[in-house]
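Chain entry —
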Amino acid sequence: MPDLLRLSADIIDSGRTDVPVNRVSQELSEIAPGIAMVESFSHVVAFATDGGLAVFDASSPLTAPAALQALRAWSGGRVHTLVYTHGHLDHVGGSPAFVADAAGRGFERPRVVGHEAVLARFERYRMTSGWNQAINHRQFGWLAGRGAGAAAGGGPGAFLPDDVAVPDHTYADHDVVDADGLELHLHHARGETDDHTWTWIPEHRAITSGDFLIWNFPNAGNPQKVQRYPLDWAAALRAMVAKEPELLLPAHGLPIAGRERIATVLTTVAGALEHLVDETVAMMNGGATLDEVVHTVAAPPDTLALPYLRPLYDEPEFVVRNVWRLYGGWWDGNPARLKPAPDADLAAEVAVLAGGTATLAGRARQLADAGRLDLACQLVEWAFQAAPDDPATRAAMTDVYQARHTAESSLMAKGIFASAARRQA
C-alpha cells in the first residue's frame, strides 16, 4: 500500500514534477485510521463509522466496480451515506454499482447527499446527451487506447446512466449532516461547477475538496463546457484554509497532510486564479478586445512549474476566455465577428485571394515547420474548408493539426486538435 501522504509531501516540498500525481490505479490506501482513498478516475474517499461507511463520490460508470471491489477489501460495512462533491459523470456515474452492492449484501440503499443544483445538472445532461458524448469523444478520444476515454463515460447509450442515483438529501448554501455519528459540514461554492460541495469533517480535521484541487491548473476554462467561476473558486479555497485542516482529500490527485502545507497549496492556487481574473477584468475595463486580453494575460511561469499547477488538463488561456464570457458576454470585440459570414464562404474568399488552396496549405506547412502552429492552423483550416475533398489539402490539414496536438501540453487542447486532425470531408 503506497504512503500517499509521504509521497505528496515529498512532491510539494521539493517541487519535483517527475512523479505521476493523478493515478488511476484502482488501489485503496488507508490515509489515516478509519479513512481510505481509492485512486480511480475520480477517487472514492471513505470514512469508517460505527455503523458502516460514509463515502464521497462513486467514480465513473466503468471504474466504479473495481473501485468498489478495492473498498470492499478494506471494509464490508454498509455504505450508509454517499456524498456527491458535484454532478460530473466521473463522480456520480458509478453510483448504480454502490446501490447494487447494497442490495446484494442485504443493506438499505445508501442515502445520497448533494447540492440542490445537482438535480438541474442531471436534467441538463439528459437534454444534451449527444452533445456531451461528442465533447467526451473530442476531449478523451485520443486517449481511448489507454482507457481514459471509456473511463470518462464514453461509449454507447445515454451520457448519464438512467439508473444514476439521484440525491435524497439536498441543501442550498451549507448544511450539517449526521453520517452515523460523524458530522459532515457541507459547504456549497461555485468553481468548476455550480453544484459543488466541499466538506469539513471536524472530528478528523479533514476536508474533502472534490475538484477544487485537481493537482493540475484549475479546470476553470474548459472550452467545451458550461461557465466556470474562478473568483468563487478562489474564495472557496481560502474558506477551506480558514478551517485550518490537517488533512485534505481531493477527488483527483494526492491527499495532503499538514496545516501549513495545505494552506500553501490552496492559497497558491487561489492566487493564480485571482491573478487571471484581476488582469483580465482590468483590461476589459480599459476597453481591450478579447484578442488583446488573451495574448496579454498569462500566469507566471514559476506558478505553472509547481507540481500541483501544471497546465496539463486545462490552461490559463482558456480560463481567461471564461472570465471574459462570465463578465463580458460572448462577443469578442471584433465587429466583423458579431454577425460573420459562414466559415466556408470566408475560406473560399481567402483561397481565391491566396491563389488557391494549394498555396494556403503549402504556406501552412511552412509556418508549421517554422514553429508558428497557431498561424498554420488558421491557414490550413481555411484551405480545408474551401476544398475538403482535395487529398493534398486534407493531408496538410491532418499533418498540421497532428503537429499542434503533439506540441500542446493541456489535455483539452490536445483533444480538440487531435479531433481536428481525424476529420473527414
In short: The chain has a mean pLDDT of 95. Residues 4-269 form a domain with the Metallo-beta-lactamase; Chain A fold (CATH 3.60.15.30). The longest helix spans residues 259-285. The chain has two domains: 4-269, 341-421.
